[in-house]
């Protein structure tokens, strides 16, 4: 007891330092969880099967709402060539093969937390991309042997961020069955979160607005 009494000041200092370190650790954990929760997360997936006629679904797994602004589809050829299209026109997405509207299909609009929307069938997205390419006179089926896969990229506004966010996912096409199968290249959707990449997307959007 005498030793404790003689060293009470030192012990109090050690206890205070220990408590301070514990609070710093708690603060760091809280901050990490907060930043993780603030991080946007968009999922691009298939709905209603795995064929080319399955729906392309976009889900918002962020803690805050997002607003879809633009959809990009890029087709990759076996020879390394690519063709891209900006898919922003609701009428183009909603137009089905028989000329009727597909209810609920849109290329833009708000998505709340844990909500999703359909961009229409993958076949339709690829059709639009081929129509807008240099080979627009050709049908998708005519180019089937030349296509290796494609990428879907979604651009959105998020919270109070001054730059758009984006997510993309690569798919390959399996022609061993009819209709073709659409298979994700990677298990997860790639989140585009670096400021440099987001600035590049902002410049792309601005350039397209100028050429409209």
Structure report:
- There is one protein chain.
- The protein has 212 residues and is α+β, with helices and mostly antiparallel strands.
- It folds into two domains: 34 residues; 172 residues.
- Helix content is 33%, strand content 32%.
- The protein has five helices and ten strands; from the N terminus they run H-H-E-E-E-E-H-E-E-H-E-E-E-E-H.
- Strands 3, 4, 5, 7, 8, 9 and 10 form a seven-stranded antiparallel beta sheet that branches.
- Strand 1 and strand 2 form a beta hairpin.
- The longest helix has 31 residues.
- It is elongated, with a radius of gyration of 25 Å.
- The chain starts with a helix and ends with a helix.
- Keywords: Membrane, Transmembrane, Transmembrane helix.
Keyword list:
212 residues, alpha+beta, 7-stranded antiparallel sheet, 3-stranded antiparallel sheet, 10 strands
List the helices and strands and how they pair.
Layout: H1 2-6, H2 8-38, E1 42-47, E2 55-60, E3 66-77, E4 82-87, H3 90-94, E5 109-111, E6 116-121, H4 122-132, E7 147-158, E8 165-174, E9 181-184, E10 190-192, H5 195-211
Antiparallel strand pairs: 1-2, 2-6, 3-4, 3-5, 3-7, 7-8, 8-9, 8-10
Transmembrane segments: 13-35
Keywords: Membrane, Transmembrane, Transmembrane helix
Tell me the number of strands.
10
Please tally the helical runs, counting DSSP H or I stretches of 4 or more residues.
Answer: 5
Radius of gyration: 25 Å
The sequence of SSEs as H and E is: HHEEEEHEEHEEEEH
Strand % is: 25-35%
Low-confidence stretches: none
Biggest pleated-sheet summary: 7 strands, antiparallel
Structural domain count: 2
* Helicity level: 25-40%
Choose one word for the global shape: elongated
Transmembrane segments: 13-35
Keywords: Membrane, Transmembrane, Transmembrane helix
